[in-house]
Specification:
The chain has 3 domains: about 150 residues, Adenine-n6-DNA-methyltransferase TaqI, Chain A, domain 2 (Alpha-Beta Complex), CATH 3.90.220; about 100 residues, Helix Hairpins (Orthogonal Bundle); about 140 residues, DNA methylase specificity domains (Adenine-n6-DNA-methyltransferase TaqI, Chain A, domain 2, Alpha-Beta Complex), CATH 3.90.220.20. The chain is about 35% helix and about 20% strand. It has about 425 residues and is an alpha+beta fold.
Length: about 425
Protein backbone atom coordinates (compact mmCIF):
# COMPACT_ATOMS: atom_id res chain seq x y z
CA UNK A 1 0.00 0.00 0.00
CA UNK A 2 1.41 3.39 -1.00
CA UNK A 3 1.19 6.17 1.59
CA UNK A 4 1.42 9.85 0.80
CA UNK A 5 2.78 12.47 3.19
CA UNK A 6 0.64 15.49 4.14
CA UNK A 7 0.29 18.14 6.77
CA UNK A 8 -3.18 17.77 8.27
CA UNK A 9 -3.97 21.31 7.17
CA UNK A 10 -3.66 20.19 3.55
CA UNK A 11 -6.42 17.58 3.88
CA UNK A 12 -8.76 19.04 6.51
CA UNK A 13 -9.77 22.26 8.21
CA UNK A 14 -9.93 22.87 11.96
CA UNK A 15 -12.21 25.53 13.44
CA UNK A 16 -12.38 26.79 17.01
CA UNK A 17 -15.71 27.15 18.77
CA UNK A 18 -17.47 30.21 20.14
CA UNK A 19 -16.52 32.17 23.24
CA UNK A 20 -19.67 31.73 25.31
CA UNK A 21 -20.34 34.18 28.14
CA UNK A 22 -20.75 32.55 31.55
CA UNK A 23 -23.68 34.82 32.40
CA UNK A 24 -25.79 32.83 29.93
CA UNK A 25 -24.96 29.41 31.36
CA UNK A 26 -28.12 27.73 32.65
CA UNK A 27 -29.46 24.52 34.19
CA UNK A 28 -32.22 24.31 31.56
CA UNK A 29 -32.57 25.33 27.97
CA UNK A 30 -32.69 24.30 24.33
CA UNK A 31 -28.97 24.22 23.56
CA UNK A 32 -26.12 22.41 25.33
CA UNK A 33 -22.59 23.83 25.20
CA UNK A 34 -19.89 21.33 24.35
CA UNK A 35 -16.99 21.00 26.79
CA UNK A 36 -14.00 18.69 27.23
CA UNK A 37 -16.32 16.64 29.44
CA UNK A 38 -18.06 15.42 26.27
CA UNK A 39 -15.02 13.34 25.30
CA UNK A 40 -14.83 9.77 26.59
CA UNK A 41 -11.12 9.76 25.80
CA UNK A 42 -10.53 6.23 27.11
CA UNK A 43 -13.04 4.82 24.62
CA UNK A 44 -12.57 7.60 22.03
CA UNK A 45 -16.25 8.42 21.69
CA UNK A 46 -18.84 11.04 22.63
CA UNK A 47 -20.44 11.10 26.07
CA UNK A 48 -23.00 13.29 27.75
CA UNK A 49 -21.33 15.57 30.29
CA UNK A 50 -22.94 14.96 33.68
CA UNK A 51 -20.23 16.64 35.75
CA UNK A 52 -21.87 20.08 35.71
CA UNK A 53 -25.39 21.41 36.17
CA UNK A 54 -25.06 24.60 34.07
CA UNK A 55 -24.35 23.13 30.65
CA UNK A 56 -27.22 24.81 28.83
CA UNK A 57 -26.66 28.11 27.04
CA UNK A 58 -29.46 30.68 26.72
CA UNK A 59 -27.55 33.53 25.08
CA UNK A 60 -27.21 34.39 21.39
CA UNK A 61 -24.62 32.68 19.21
CA UNK A 62 -23.81 32.37 15.51
CA UNK A 63 -25.68 29.53 13.76
CA UNK A 64 -22.31 28.27 12.44
CA UNK A 65 -21.50 27.01 15.95
CA UNK A 66 -24.58 24.77 16.19
CA UNK A 67 -23.35 21.24 15.55
CA UNK A 68 -24.81 18.67 13.17
CA UNK A 69 -25.12 14.93 13.62
CA UNK A 70 -21.91 13.29 12.41
CA UNK A 71 -19.65 16.31 12.98
CA UNK A 72 -16.19 15.33 14.26
CA UNK A 73 -14.80 17.22 17.26
CA UNK A 74 -11.50 17.19 19.14
CA UNK A 75 -10.49 19.04 22.36
CA UNK A 76 -8.16 22.03 22.45
CA UNK A 77 -7.56 21.78 26.23
CA UNK A 78 -6.06 18.82 28.07
CA UNK A 79 -8.09 18.70 31.27
CA UNK A 80 -7.06 15.06 31.76
CA UNK A 81 -3.83 13.38 30.65
CA UNK A 82 -4.37 11.76 27.26
CA UNK A 83 -7.27 13.99 26.24
CA UNK A 84 -5.49 15.86 23.42
CA UNK A 85 -6.04 14.08 20.12
CA UNK A 86 -9.24 12.39 21.27
CA UNK A 87 -12.13 12.49 18.85
CA UNK A 88 -15.89 12.27 19.19
CA UNK A 89 -18.86 12.32 16.83
CA UNK A 90 -21.87 14.54 17.51
CA UNK A 91 -24.89 12.24 18.05
CA UNK A 92 -27.70 14.58 16.94
CA UNK A 93 -28.26 17.84 15.10
CA UNK A 94 -29.45 21.14 16.52
CA UNK A 95 -28.61 20.50 20.18
CA UNK A 96 -24.91 21.16 20.86
CA UNK A 97 -23.03 24.47 20.59
CA UNK A 98 -19.31 24.32 19.80
CA UNK A 99 -17.43 26.19 22.53
CA UNK A 100 -13.91 27.62 22.36
CA UNK A 101 -12.28 24.58 24.02
CA UNK A 102 -13.57 22.32 21.25
CA UNK A 103 -12.40 22.16 17.64
CA UNK A 104 -14.46 20.96 14.69
CA UNK A 105 -12.77 18.83 12.02
CA UNK A 106 -13.92 19.40 8.43
CA UNK A 107 -12.47 17.04 5.81
CA UNK A 108 -11.51 17.99 2.26
CA UNK A 109 -13.55 15.13 0.90
CA UNK A 110 -11.62 14.64 -2.34
CA UNK A 111 -8.53 13.86 -0.23
CA UNK A 112 -9.75 12.54 3.11
CA UNK A 113 -12.55 10.16 4.10
CA UNK A 114 -14.50 11.31 7.15
CA UNK A 115 -14.48 7.96 8.98
CA UNK A 116 -10.77 7.56 8.31
CA UNK A 117 -10.15 11.10 9.62
CA UNK A 118 -11.85 10.23 12.92
CA UNK A 119 -9.24 7.51 13.58
CA UNK A 120 -6.35 9.42 12.02
CA UNK A 121 -6.73 12.36 14.43
CA UNK A 122 -6.84 10.01 17.43
CA UNK A 123 -3.93 7.85 16.26
CA UNK A 124 -0.73 7.74 18.31
CA UNK A 125 1.12 9.48 15.47
CA UNK A 126 -1.01 12.62 15.78
CA UNK A 127 -1.40 12.43 19.56
CA UNK A 128 2.37 12.35 20.04
CA UNK A 129 2.83 15.43 17.86
CA UNK A 130 0.08 17.32 19.69
CA UNK A 131 1.54 16.38 23.05
CA UNK A 132 5.03 17.54 22.02
CA UNK A 133 3.69 20.88 20.74
CA UNK A 134 1.30 21.55 23.63
CA UNK A 135 2.06 24.47 25.89
CA UNK A 136 3.74 23.21 29.04
CA UNK A 137 1.39 24.66 31.64
CA UNK A 138 -0.60 23.01 34.43
CA UNK A 139 -3.43 22.50 31.93
CA UNK A 140 -1.94 22.07 28.47
CA UNK A 141 -3.50 23.51 25.32
CA UNK A 142 -3.28 23.01 21.60
CA UNK A 143 -4.74 25.10 18.76
CA UNK A 144 -6.26 24.64 15.30
CA UNK A 145 -2.92 25.66 13.73
CA UNK A 146 -0.97 23.10 15.76
CA UNK A 147 -3.40 20.39 14.74
CA UNK A 148 -3.05 21.40 11.09
CA UNK A 149 0.78 21.32 11.40
CA UNK A 150 0.81 17.60 12.29
CA UNK A 151 2.49 15.37 9.69
CA UNK A 152 0.65 12.22 8.55
CA UNK A 153 0.98 9.54 5.89
CA UNK A 154 -2.28 8.32 4.35
CA UNK A 155 -3.33 5.89 1.59
CA UNK A 156 -5.43 6.77 -1.43
CA UNK A 157 -9.08 7.66 -0.87
CA UNK A 158 -10.68 4.30 -1.68
CA UNK A 159 -8.38 2.53 0.78
CA UNK A 160 -9.20 5.18 3.40
CA UNK A 161 -12.89 4.43 2.92
CA UNK A 162 -12.35 0.71 3.38
CA UNK A 163 -10.28 1.27 6.54
CA UNK A 164 -12.73 3.81 7.95
CA UNK A 165 -15.71 1.57 7.26
CA UNK A 166 -14.09 -1.43 8.97
CA UNK A 167 -13.10 0.48 12.09
CA UNK A 168 -16.44 2.30 12.25
CA UNK A 169 -18.33 -1.00 12.00
CA UNK A 170 -16.37 -2.37 14.96
CA UNK A 171 -17.02 0.79 17.00
CA UNK A 172 -20.73 0.76 16.19
CA UNK A 173 -20.94 -2.84 17.44
CA UNK A 174 -19.09 -1.84 20.63
CA UNK A 175 -21.49 1.07 21.16
CA UNK A 176 -24.52 -1.14 20.50
CA UNK A 177 -23.24 -3.61 23.08
CA UNK A 178 -22.69 -0.83 25.61
CA UNK A 179 -26.26 0.37 25.11
CA UNK A 180 -27.60 -3.16 25.46
CA UNK A 181 -25.71 -3.63 28.70
CA UNK A 182 -26.94 -0.25 29.91
CA UNK A 183 -30.52 -1.33 29.21
CA UNK A 184 -30.05 -4.67 31.01
CA UNK A 185 -28.60 -2.85 34.02
CA UNK A 186 -31.49 -0.38 33.99
CA UNK A 187 -33.90 -3.34 34.08
CA UNK A 188 -32.13 -4.80 37.11
CA UNK A 189 -32.14 -1.45 38.93
CA UNK A 190 -35.81 -0.92 38.16
CA UNK A 191 -36.61 -4.37 39.48
CA UNK A 192 -34.59 -3.65 42.64
CA UNK A 193 -36.54 -0.43 43.19
CA UNK A 194 -39.86 -2.15 42.59
CA UNK A 195 -39.14 -5.07 44.93
CA UNK A 196 -36.91 -3.65 47.66
CA UNK A 197 -37.80 0.05 47.84
CA UNK A 198 -41.50 0.05 46.95
CA UNK A 199 -41.92 -3.51 48.37
CA UNK A 200 -44.02 -4.67 45.42
CA UNK A 201 -42.23 -8.00 44.97
CA UNK A 202 -44.52 -10.90 43.96
CA UNK A 203 -46.52 -12.30 46.87
CA UNK A 204 -47.59 -15.97 47.10
CA UNK A 205 -50.27 -15.27 44.49
CA UNK A 206 -47.90 -13.45 42.13
CA UNK A 207 -49.41 -10.05 42.96
CA UNK A 208 -47.39 -6.95 44.04
CA UNK A 209 -46.98 -7.38 47.81
CA UNK A 210 -47.52 -3.90 49.29
CA UNK A 211 -49.99 -2.67 46.67
CA UNK A 212 -52.09 -5.79 47.28
CA UNK A 213 -52.31 -5.20 51.02
CA UNK A 214 -49.28 -7.22 52.16
CA UNK A 215 -48.64 -6.81 55.87
CA UNK A 216 -46.01 -4.24 56.87
CA UNK A 217 -44.41 -3.94 60.33
CA UNK A 218 -42.48 -1.11 61.94
CA UNK A 219 -38.77 -1.74 62.43
CA UNK A 220 -37.06 0.28 65.17
CA UNK A 221 -33.55 -0.19 63.80
CA UNK A 222 -34.35 0.93 60.26
CA UNK A 223 -36.99 3.41 61.46
CA UNK A 224 -39.42 2.44 58.75
CA UNK A 225 -42.07 -0.12 57.88
CA UNK A 226 -40.81 -3.30 56.24
CA UNK A 227 -42.62 -6.41 54.96
CA UNK A 228 -43.58 -9.07 57.49
CA UNK A 229 -40.87 -11.78 57.78
CA UNK A 230 -38.15 -9.44 56.49
CA UNK A 231 -35.40 -8.61 58.98
CA UNK A 232 -33.18 -5.68 59.89
CA UNK A 233 -29.56 -6.83 59.97
CA UNK A 234 -26.09 -5.33 59.76
CA UNK A 235 -23.59 -6.19 57.04
CA UNK A 236 -21.52 -8.55 59.20
CA UNK A 237 -24.60 -10.76 59.64
CA UNK A 238 -24.96 -11.37 55.90
CA UNK A 239 -21.37 -11.16 54.62
CA UNK A 240 -17.73 -11.44 55.62
CA UNK A 241 -15.83 -8.25 54.82
CA UNK A 242 -12.12 -8.25 53.93
CA UNK A 243 -9.47 -5.59 53.47
CA UNK A 244 -7.05 -5.80 50.58
CA UNK A 245 -3.29 -5.24 50.56
CA UNK A 246 -0.29 -4.57 48.33
CA UNK A 247 2.91 -6.68 48.31
CA UNK A 248 5.13 -5.36 51.08
CA UNK A 249 8.17 -4.51 48.94
CA UNK A 250 8.64 -3.12 45.44
CA UNK A 251 9.99 -6.30 43.90
CA UNK A 252 9.23 -7.59 40.42
CA UNK A 253 9.14 -11.13 41.85
CA UNK A 254 5.88 -10.08 43.53
CA UNK A 255 4.18 -9.55 40.18
CA UNK A 256 3.40 -11.37 36.95
CA UNK A 257 2.05 -14.55 38.52
CA UNK A 258 -1.31 -16.27 38.19
CA UNK A 259 -3.20 -14.54 41.01
CA UNK A 260 -5.62 -11.87 39.73
CA UNK A 261 -5.05 -8.66 41.70
CA UNK A 262 -7.50 -5.78 41.37
CA UNK A 263 -6.91 -2.09 42.09
CA UNK A 264 -9.46 0.76 41.92
CA UNK A 265 -7.89 1.84 38.61
CA UNK A 266 -9.12 -1.42 37.06
CA UNK A 267 -12.68 -0.34 37.86
CA UNK A 268 -12.45 3.43 37.32
CA UNK A 269 -10.87 3.16 33.87
CA UNK A 270 -13.21 0.51 32.54
CA UNK A 271 -16.38 1.20 34.54
CA UNK A 272 -17.23 -2.48 34.36
CA UNK A 273 -19.81 -4.22 36.52
CA UNK A 274 -17.95 -7.53 36.34
CA UNK A 275 -14.23 -8.03 36.86
CA UNK A 276 -12.19 -11.13 36.11
CA UNK A 277 -8.82 -9.63 35.23
CA UNK A 278 -6.77 -6.62 36.28
CA UNK A 279 -3.94 -4.59 34.85
CA UNK A 280 -1.43 -6.62 36.84
CA UNK A 281 -1.41 -10.04 38.50
CA UNK A 282 0.66 -10.89 41.54
CA UNK A 283 2.72 -14.00 42.19
CA UNK A 284 2.46 -16.42 45.10
CA UNK A 285 5.51 -14.66 46.54
CA UNK A 286 3.70 -11.33 46.32
CA UNK A 287 0.53 -12.78 47.79
CA UNK A 288 2.43 -14.33 50.72
CA UNK A 289 4.18 -11.02 51.43
CA UNK A 290 0.98 -9.14 52.28
CA UNK A 291 -2.27 -9.57 54.16
CA UNK A 292 -4.64 -9.64 51.23
CA UNK A 293 -7.24 -12.42 50.91
CA UNK A 294 -8.03 -14.77 48.04
CA UNK A 295 -11.69 -14.11 47.34
CA UNK A 296 -14.18 -16.44 45.62
CA UNK A 297 -16.21 -15.69 42.50
CA UNK A 298 -19.28 -13.50 43.17
CA UNK A 299 -17.46 -11.49 45.82
CA UNK A 300 -18.69 -7.88 45.80
CA UNK A 301 -15.83 -5.38 45.51
CA UNK A 302 -16.25 -1.79 46.73
CA UNK A 303 -13.56 0.87 46.53
CA UNK A 304 -13.27 2.30 50.03
CA UNK A 305 -10.72 5.03 49.36
CA UNK A 306 -11.27 8.04 47.13
CA UNK A 307 -12.97 7.52 44.79
CA UNK A 308 -15.25 5.73 47.28
CA UNK A 309 -18.07 3.63 45.92
CA UNK A 310 -16.85 1.96 42.73
CA UNK A 311 -18.58 -1.42 42.73
CA UNK A 312 -17.99 -4.65 40.83
CA UNK A 313 -18.81 -8.34 41.04
CA UNK A 314 -15.83 -10.69 40.88
CA UNK A 315 -16.26 -13.37 38.23
CA UNK A 316 -13.14 -15.32 39.12
CA UNK A 317 -11.05 -16.04 42.20
CA UNK A 318 -9.00 -12.91 42.92
CA UNK A 319 -7.55 -10.56 45.52
CA UNK A 320 -7.44 -6.77 45.82
CA UNK A 321 -5.18 -4.00 47.00
CA UNK A 322 -5.92 -1.92 50.09
CA UNK A 323 -8.28 0.38 48.19
CA UNK A 324 -11.14 -2.10 48.59
CA UNK A 325 -13.53 -3.61 51.04
CA UNK A 326 -14.68 -6.98 49.70
CA UNK A 327 -17.96 -8.67 50.64
CA UNK A 328 -18.20 -12.47 50.62
CA UNK A 329 -21.85 -13.39 51.09
CA UNK A 330 -22.77 -15.94 53.76
CA UNK A 331 -25.55 -17.38 51.58
CA UNK A 332 -25.66 -17.88 47.80
CA UNK A 333 -28.95 -16.07 47.29
CA UNK A 334 -27.82 -12.71 48.67
CA UNK A 335 -24.74 -11.79 46.60
CA UNK A 336 -26.41 -9.85 43.76
CA UNK A 337 -28.95 -8.33 46.16
CA UNK A 338 -26.01 -7.07 48.26
CA UNK A 339 -24.42 -5.49 45.18
CA UNK A 340 -27.55 -3.45 44.43
CA UNK A 341 -28.17 -2.69 48.12
CA UNK A 342 -24.69 -1.17 48.42
CA UNK A 343 -25.18 0.72 45.17
CA UNK A 344 -28.53 2.12 46.33
CA UNK A 345 -27.03 3.26 49.65
CA UNK A 346 -23.63 4.36 48.34
CA UNK A 347 -24.17 8.01 49.34
CA UNK A 348 -24.64 7.02 52.99
CA UNK A 349 -21.58 4.77 52.78
CA UNK A 350 -19.47 7.60 51.31
CA UNK A 351 -20.43 9.76 54.29
CA UNK A 352 -18.71 7.25 56.59
CA UNK A 353 -15.35 8.16 55.04
CA UNK A 354 -12.81 9.85 57.30
CA UNK A 355 -9.24 11.10 56.86
CA UNK A 356 -7.29 14.23 55.95
CA UNK A 357 -4.91 13.14 53.16
CA UNK A 358 -7.65 11.03 51.57
CA UNK A 359 -10.98 9.77 52.83
CA UNK A 360 -11.47 6.10 53.56
CA UNK A 361 -14.35 4.01 54.84
CA UNK A 362 -13.21 1.63 57.58
CA UNK A 363 -13.99 -2.08 57.72
CA UNK A 364 -15.50 -1.59 61.20
CA UNK A 365 -17.98 0.99 59.92
CA UNK A 366 -18.89 -1.21 56.95
CA UNK A 367 -19.53 -4.22 59.20
CA UNK A 368 -22.01 -2.17 61.27
CA UNK A 369 -23.80 -0.68 58.28
CA UNK A 370 -27.55 -1.50 58.47
CA UNK A 371 -29.00 -4.05 56.06
CA UNK A 372 -32.55 -4.96 55.13
CA UNK A 373 -32.65 -8.72 54.59
CA UNK A 374 -35.64 -9.94 52.55
CA UNK A 375 -37.16 -13.36 53.11
CA UNK A 376 -35.34 -16.29 51.48
CA UNK A 377 -38.13 -17.06 49.01
CA UNK A 378 -37.95 -13.48 47.65
CA UNK A 379 -34.15 -13.58 47.52
CA UNK A 380 -34.22 -16.93 45.69
CA UNK A 381 -36.55 -15.53 43.01
CA UNK A 382 -34.51 -12.32 42.72
CA UNK A 383 -31.30 -14.32 42.32
CA UNK A 384 -32.84 -16.48 39.61
CA UNK A 385 -34.05 -13.50 37.56
CA UNK A 386 -31.08 -11.17 38.01
CA UNK A 387 -28.45 -13.88 37.58
CA UNK A 388 -29.80 -14.47 34.08
CA UNK A 389 -29.45 -10.73 33.35
CA UNK A 390 -25.93 -10.75 34.82
CA UNK A 391 -24.87 -13.73 32.72
CA UNK A 392 -25.94 -11.93 29.56
CA UNK A 393 -24.22 -8.72 30.68
CA UNK A 394 -20.99 -10.60 31.29
CA UNK A 395 -21.15 -12.20 27.81
CA UNK A 396 -21.60 -8.76 26.25
CA UNK A 397 -18.81 -7.24 28.35
CA UNK A 398 -16.38 -9.97 27.26
CA UNK A 399 -17.42 -9.57 23.63
CA UNK A 400 -16.72 -5.84 23.84
CA UNK A 401 -13.33 -6.40 25.42
CA UNK A 402 -12.42 -8.70 22.51
CA UNK A 403 -13.71 -6.18 19.96
CA UNK A 404 -11.75 -3.35 21.58
CA UNK A 405 -8.60 -5.48 21.62
CA UNK A 406 -9.11 -6.37 17.94
CA UNK A 407 -9.70 -2.73 16.97
CA UNK A 408 -6.71 -1.43 18.95
CA UNK A 409 -4.41 -4.03 17.41
CA UNK A 410 -5.67 -3.30 13.89
CA UNK A 411 -5.63 0.49 14.16
CA UNK A 412 -1.85 1.15 14.01
CA UNK A 413 -1.35 -1.56 11.36
CA UNK A 414 -4.04 -0.04 9.14
CA UNK A 415 -2.82 3.50 9.67
CA UNK A 416 0.82 2.80 8.84
CA UNK A 417 0.03 0.63 5.81
CA UNK A 418 1.17 -2.72 7.22
CA UNK A 419 -2.33 -4.14 6.71
CA UNK A 420 -4.85 -3.38 3.97
CA UNK A 421 -8.59 -4.04 3.81
CA UNK A 422 -9.90 -6.33 1.09
CA UNK A 423 -13.47 -5.05 0.92
CA UNK A 424 -15.59 -4.08 -2.08
CA UNK A 425 -17.45 -0.84 -1.23
CA UNK A 426 -19.68 -1.22 -4.27
CA UNK A 427 -21.56 -4.08 -2.53
CA UNK A 428 -23.17 -1.68 -0.03
Amino acid sequence: MELKKYKLGEILDVTRGASLSGKFYAAKGEYVRLTCGNFDYQNNCFKENKAKDNLYYIGDFKPDFLMKEGDIITPLTEQAIGLLGSTAIIPESGKYIQSQDVAKIVCKEHLLDKDFAFYLISSNLVKQQLSAAAQQTKIRHTSPDKIKDCIVWIPELEEQKRIGKLLRTIDLKIELNRQLNHNLEAMAKQLYDYWFVQFDFPDENGKPYKSSGGKMVWDKRLKREIPLLWKAKIVEEVADVYNGATPSTVNELNYGGDIVWITPKDLSDQKQKFVYQGERNISQVGYDSCSTHLLPSNTILMSSRAPIGLLAIAKTELCTNQGFKSFVSKSKNIATYLYYYLQYHITQIEQLGTGTTFKEVSREDILKFPMLKPSDNVLDLWEEIVSALNDRQLEIQKENENLIKQRDELLPLLMNGQVSVNYDLSHD
